[in-house]
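worker-03 picked up job from queue 'complexes'. Input manifest follows; two sequence lines, order preserved.
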Amino acid sequence: QLQLQESGPGLVKPSETLSLTCTVSGDSISRSGYYWGWIRQPPGKGLEWIGTIYYSGSTFYNPSLKSRVTISVDTSKNQFSLKLTSVTAADTSVFYCVRQGTAVAAGKFDPWGQGTLVTVSS
Amino acid sequence: QSVLTQPPSASGTPGQRVTISCSGSTSNIGSNIVNWYQQLPGTAPKLLINSNNQRPSGVPDRFSGSKSGTSASLAISGLRSEDEADYYCVAWDDSLNGFYVFGTGTKVTVL
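worker-03 finished. Artifact:
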């Protein structure tokens, strides 16, 4: 059964870099042909797509975050990661990692990790 | 940046039919497929409808999706208490080299 698990610090200081890793179990990132992504949800608010990566390293980012986001993949560890620089309180969110469909625009986010809350505060 | 517009809330009594709209534009819903997600309180969202109107395995047939032009809809028939949740639509937008845009979300309350 495919499972995704987010990990990383739950507290980040303003202006610093938020780093999260998603560990995939039950399938191989490099073998499956799927895209993998990050989505966030500020407390009490809606969902926002952050970006997507293919096992080859091809990336797609939300234009509103593109200047601050880097998503990378480590196929040897079956993980993909998110870095968000220069964070502010507005970046406080629950961050989810997801498996997407086999087409970048399919929007089929399934399954989702359980999510991890990252708070930006000094 | 564009968003997909949903009503903030919808409600019904058990057994009723509830419909949620998702309004977009030619660059997103008008050009690409729409998926729907259900988020129960305190949990991660779950895929409910993909490819406009396809139910993944395990999703009750009480849930149905449709799309016409630049709008999409999610219908819940035979409303049940466990359907009380937030619902989001999402579609790819072809502008600005492409990106996903989510709906604003609709809170469904079972009265």
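worker-03 released lock.
The CA atoms of residues 15 and 70 of chain B lie 29 Å apart.
Chain B touches chain A at residues 1, 32-35, 37, 44-47, 50-51, 56, 88, 90-92, 96-105 (CB under 8 Å).
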